[in-house]
UniProtKB/TrEMBL annotation:
The keyword Ribosomal protein does not apply. Residues 93-122 form the C2H2-type domain. Signal peptide: none annotated. This is C2H2-type domain-containing protein. Residues 1-23 are annotated as: Disordered. It comes from Cryptolaemus montrouzieri. It comes from the Eukaryota.
Amino acid sequence: MFQHSQLMQSPLMPPQNPYSAENSMSPLAAMAANLNKRSMSPHEMTQEQKKVRIQNSMRILKDEPVPEGYLRFRFNEDCHYQHCGYREHQTHFHCQRQDCGYSFCDKTRFVQHTARHERLDTLMGGDFQQYRANVSCGRAECTYTSSLGATQNKASHFHCLKCEFVCTDTNKVVAHRRQHQKLDSIQAAGFEKFTPSQHCRVINCQHSGKQTHYHCLQCQYAVLGLAQMSAHKYRHLEN
């Protein structure tokens, strides 16, 4: 009886577990511990965990599609844009439009830059061509060709496709388009406009080189305003 009582474990002593606490953890507790590990802030991570997190982020960036109209170039890829500041040393994107070539690193610029083109296309209305500061317009006589690629020159310039007019201000683009629209209306009415600096080449014209006037394309009759233009037009209709 005495020997048997010695073999019995004292109720005051904790039971001995042959397994470690980690191995005896319940599935629910293990899941909670795993979630706690995943939700660790960066300063609580080990160097190896930080490295894995960065690699995963880079993998997501690598696999992310590039919007239509743009190209992505890795830091070790040559984008072949002569005046690109990111060329062969930083991952970046380029707009594919031949009159643009805009380069950037921030992915949020996709929406902004696309909206910019839509706005400018509306302003130009097919009558102008835009060229960014780092893109050649191909016109040797253009005053902006000499400053191509200069760091101080970041403005786009615009060429009128109907005349030699060029500017950098979008407000002037709109105003110049209105002038052409007016000239188109004058031509549709059967007249041609001449400014004070232009010689109309009409023999004995008293307005040539002096004031703005309009010549009838059929009979070379000169008028000074739209009202006279309309009255003269009806003469040809009567005949």
